[in-house]
Amino acid sequence: MTTPATPASNRGGALYLRRRVANSIFIVLSLAAALFGLLWLALILGGLLIDGISALSPTLFTQITPPPGEKGGLANAIAGSVMMSSIAVLAGTPIGLFAGTYLAEYSRAGGMASKFAYVVRFINDILLSAPSIIIGLFVYEILVVPMRGFSGWAGAAALAVIVIPVVVRTTENMLLLVPDGLREAASALGAPRSAMIKSVTWKAAQAGIITGILLAVARISGETAPLLFTALGNNGWVSGWDTMNHPMASLPAVIFNFANSPYEDQHAFLTDAGALADDLLSQGFTAMKIWPFDQFVEKSNGQFISNFVDTGHAHDECLGDLLHVVARNKPLEKHNT
Full-prediction pTM beyond 0.90? Predict the structure, then answer.
């Protein structure tokens, strides 16, 4: 004998049906939005591959940018981008690393330290979201105008300003993900805070920190606006020890100039090849930064799981290094019994 449906059960069935319908609608909309974005990405990458691969040749990497009507390559632009980006990363990474470490490790005590950390985070957020052309104008005023000329140093300085906030943010976030139990263990062993940071937290978060550095490199590899106001550009080679003291070509700036060129050979050949080379560079660093981050952190039910902690060998290795640091910095006292 079946029991008749009650009004309460009818309301529950209708509510369940509405939720199923709403859930299906949102799944379909989310899938459509994802496919819409992937479609345009595929069109952009497909166009770059089709037009750019046909323009790739050995001369692209061995000859300098040519005048209109002649054949040439992008060797000077590629070399200039590598030089300025390398100097920017070498200059900006230590600043961002130590600033992010301060925000994550030294600003927890409260008082003036936390207030100062709040100001630093606020300024860093402004730099992180500032348009790159504003950074280029800033470096133009403080370096290009006093030096009375464009230079590779000014371009590297503008890129370094872009690198710093990215490294600060990622370093702070990665260090905050390190479990406090590791810090407490280091303190229990008698390690000073500096030794704890160097041997424990930096080592635990090194994959995430490297990810942030690669993210910064991918960010500056495609910047054009700050280089137009600082490095300007150069259609030839500048050899010698003072190479960075002269205007320097860069791959994004050359792409921008040739894209606006009325000459078909520059627009069709070097622009497509340069855009493909620059995109491969950026995508390469993007792929490089995804792998170490995936190796560094996994999230399960909202709980942080560190591979550094989960791997017994790595944990024992860290404790062994920490014991050596403690013995070197603060030897254990012997007590007579």
Answer: no
